[in-house]
């Protein structure tokens, strides 16, 4: 009882000191934004590459490439200012957080300036204007013609976008289904989960071309039909803003957006070949990274986990508390939250600029270590107590007993459970796709965007995960058999 009371206290203290540390950082040095970029020699542009013709990833001669209007604009900004360009691809609803925590310098992602967003960031002059449209299934064409026909219906939108607001404001009693990525919304529409989708004109056209079962709801006109698109910039960065607006002016004066649109249309043309020749290398890359991060997660997690297990079994109370607090906290919070905490926390709290891959690995290692610590502790505890007593009474020291009596038996309990943990990690690692780690799930999403086919890539991802986990569990089965024989 007293024990668990102390444990709760330790968790609370750890948590509140963390919170104190995360107090909203004020970016006093924000006008130095431009200086920082210049010094780095690299402009980090955040975007969500699910948005052809603005930004999408596709295959050129077996290599992956970003293309689209926003990409061309970003390239020009970099070139005009003698900077290298770094594209940081993430979910649309993570972009504002990323710019505020300093993960990216600017957002070029078909973003509309809105009053809410203007509280968080400044916007450049607009570089485009787009119309808001509704798309539906062809088969529902006779039922869904005017805006009124959508009253009380389910409407799909991309999460945290202007389209979400428009649907809320302009459709009577709309039942809004917000999903993170455009292809997911398209899939909901195709499968009849929503009746219509509010979407920007050029993006709609790109998807309609590849999905003949969808069409525009011609009769629907939104009041907020026209919207600007601009670059989001951290607040109070006048110098950076000046340079962005200079490029935008140049783009407008020379009507370059028209060229960018042509480039995008060219890049969007279906490349030859079947699904696998076109997108196979996306999935291959994904498999490599999934295996890599899972191995790192389990191996480093096991090392850290062993230390924690020893702490937990130790006679020193503070070590026990520390280990318990750590383990309880990590097992009691979702991996998804931990991934975001590491990703944004590493920059916002610690000021480190770590890549998504490294952040994803760190989160997995930390998470695994807690589970593995428990596996090891349980494995050791499962060895009959009498063994320790017997060995000690024969004159062996505690250390000797552990090493030559307890641990060899514990290993037999631990190894199978570690194998299961490995299988779990392979599946769970899909979560790090949210911060843009290029593993299987992330690549499936990229292919969804590139192929305008929301379903097949998911199916392929499922099969790949299954092959990995099934093979692994067969291998484990084999070794477990060997362990038993060695008894
Ligand atoms: N223009 C809309 C907005 O700013 C949607 C932009 C979505 N962009 C994207 N890359 N998915 O809310």
From TrEMBL:
Gene (name only): artQ
PROSITE patterns referenced in this protein's UniProt entry, alphabetically: ABC_TM1, SBP_BACTERIAL_3
Family the entry assigns: Belongs to the bacterial solute-binding protein 3 family.
GO BP, one annotated term: amino acid transport
Protein source organism: Staphylococcus arlettae
Source superkingdom: Bacteria
Subcellular location: Cell membrane
Domain ABC transmembrane type-1: 287-476
Protein name as it appears in the record: ABC transporter permease
Keyword NAD: no
